[in-house]
Amino acid sequence: FWQYLDPSMTYTCAYWKNGTQSLAEAQKNKLDHVCRKLMLQPGEHLIDVGGGWGSLLFHLFSWPLSLSISF
User: Looking at the DSSP assignment, which residues form a beta bridge with residue 45?
Assistant: First the structure.
């Protein structure tokens, strides 16, 4: 897979908003967009059911929230 994916190994659709220059940037745009739509709040719980290589979880670790994440 690594030959066709960005460094995060995200294999779902990307979000190519205006000005996006690379697949890695488009995947980050998508993960940011998903996280904003979830409207996660400090102390909330998130369960990852294993739909990929963990790019959403790794992305969430960089967010300034205190979440309980199960996988």
Answer: 68
Per-residue tokens: 45: 């719980």
> Would you say residue 44 has pLDDT above 60?
yes
Residue showing tokens 């488009």: 26
Nearest CA-CA partner of 20 in 32, 12, 35: 32
Backbone angles phi and psi of 47, in degrees to 5: -110, 125
* pTM to 2 decimal places: 0.76
Contacts of 30 (CB under 8 A, 6+ apart): 10, 12, 13, 14, 15
33 near 14, Cβ under 8 Å? Answer: no
Residues in the chain: 71
